[in-house]
Amino acid sequence: MNGPALHDDPDDMLRAWVEPGAHLHAASTMARPNALLYALARTREGRRDVTVSVAAVHSSAHALALSAAVRHVITGFLGDVYPMPRHNPLYARVAQGHPFTAEIWPLWTLVQRLAAAGAGAPAAVTRSLLTSDLRHALTADLRTVTTFEGGAAHLVRPLAPDLTLMHAVLADRRGNLVLGSPSGEGAWAAYAARHGVLASTERIVERLPDGCSGLLVVPGHLVRALCPAPRGAHPQALATPPATGVAGYADDYAFLEDVNAHCRRGAGAEWFDQWVRSPRGHADYLRRLDSRPRLAARPSSTAPSTPSARERLVILGARAVRDHVLADGYRTVLAGIGHSHLAAWLARDLLARRGVDIRVCAELGFYDMRPAHGQVHLFAPAHLPGASHRVGLPEILGGIVTAGGEQCLGVLSTAQIDRSGTLNTCLLPDGRWLTGPGGACDIAAAADCVVLAQAEPRRYVASVRHCTSPGDRVRTCVSHYGRFERANSGEPLALATWLPPQDAPGEDPAGMVDRTTQGWSAGDRPPVLEPAVTARELDALRALDPDGVYR
């Protein structure tokens, strides 16, 4: 049986297979195809002649913007995710078409579009966009319909790229690919591609080991071309099933911080020249990587005895999650990235002390997480041994959240929130880009939510500029001085609990609300006094985050 075309290097493969005007999808599994994205940036630099769809543009994917290779991007996120999610200046004018035009979709809805194409279905169905302002730019691909129950939903056009880029843990010469776990969007992007898959892999073998039969495998008949690329997911991690015999590797956090720092200070071109343009292919990239000067580690510091504002935010958020679980019986907690996932992790500890076992999940496929201490990145492979199951994004954002939302509590962070609970993570009033919806829009549309946001007037606004995620299921918004709550979605959020600032214990709650929000209210009733942060709570948080990344 004929197998895929074999190439020696990602650059050679992309030169041979990518044509002007092509639509390429970069698969978001736990093995990100970063070597292929670098090759795409190198081989098509300055042409602006391809479309790329990908769940999120961050870290190494900044090469797509810096190379001017891409005309149009279809995604759910443009920004940075490490050390924490935040905007990146590269995309400040993306709403105006720079450095490329962008089409923004919620994460689960984007994967539903791939699945519809892969299954040969005429459309996917979603409720995530019914009240989100994202829908206004997507009218060509949405149709509003009435459901059998008499409600409203959107039919969404399938997403069928020309070619899908994937990085595999292992491949055989027939093209069968073994992917890492958890599986993220899984194999749907391979099935969705009109002309098949271009794959890189850690290793090519004659025949897959027998133990791989139970792993996620992309069938070889879908793979058009294949090339070896050891460490092809770098600087991101690769989680490898033991049956493959391939050694995995961790996230290169120093490298991730370096690329983000270069872009934030306007020196992205310098980073691009060093790590993308100058290397003569993937092998040269690895040689340069191995010979680089050791990048400085995050400086350590002695933790103060009192919690910082961010630590107060996380601890108060964890208490809010705990209380909602105890009062309402949620069975699962979906941890969004940022301060929110630390709050979800800490809430699990607080609940365990009361004999309550809650399943903490993360969107790429982590189920029932027991996070590794000292690893604050939400998707670090170090968390995998403590997760009872490794599934995929469809099981988490599809089955657990959007199908089982009554039993799931979402824990989210946001750039802006107004008193109705509406969240904005896309656009500032002056048109500058923030980050995007990620999976938050899907979560907020289907499940009750606790939202974390540090108390600042730029975050607590009278009315958001852009409704990225609906606010009607936001139960509580937590700041670092207390919780804003409401009895039902028709009421505005109002201050319900109060933790005075450490340096001003006599501060009036109403005065603090006036000073740190735009038109929010302290409410008609005096807020309940929050207990002081305990040493036990602070120790538990710092065990999760000993380096103070979120301090």
How would you describe what is shown here?
With 551 residues, this protein is an alpha/beta fold. It is 26% helix and 19% strand. Helix 9 packs across helix 10 (339-352) and helix 11 (393-403) packs parallel to helix 12 (440-446). It starts with a strand and ends in a 7-residue tail after the last helix. The model has no long low-confidence stretch (mean pLDDT 95).
Binned, the helix content reads 25-40%
Low-confidence stretches: none
* Tally of individual helices: 14
User: Biggest sheet, open or closed, and with what strands and sense?
Assistant: 8 strands, parallel
Radius of gyration: 23 Å
Provide the β-strand percentage band: 15-25%
Total beta-strand segments = 28
In whole angstroms, the N-to-C terminal distance is: 57 Å
Overall form: globular
The overall pLDDT average reads 95
User: Structural class, from helix and strand content?
Assistant: alpha/beta
Enumerate the strands of the largest sheet in spatial order, edge to edge or round the barrel.
Answer: 1-15-12-9-2-3-4-5
Short account of what is shown:
The protein is 26% helix and 19% strand.
Ordered list of secondary-structure elements with their pairings:
Blueprint: E1 5-6, H1 10-17, E2 23-26, H2 34-43, E3 50-54, H3 62-67, E4 70-75, E5 101-104, H4 107-119, E6 124-126, E7 142-146, E8 152-156, E9 163-168, E10 170-172, E11 177-178, H5 188-192, E12 197-201, E13 204-205, E14 217-218, E15 223-228, H6 253-264, H7 268-277, H8 282-291, H9 309-328, E16 332-335, H10 339-352, E17 359-361, E18 366-367, E19 389-390, H11 393-403, E20 408-413, E21 416-417, E22 423-424, H12 440-446, E23 448-452, E24 474-479, E25 482-485, E26 494-495, E27 497-498, H13 509-516, E28 528-529, H14 535-544
Helix pairs in contact: 1-2, 6-7, 9-10, 10-14, 11-12
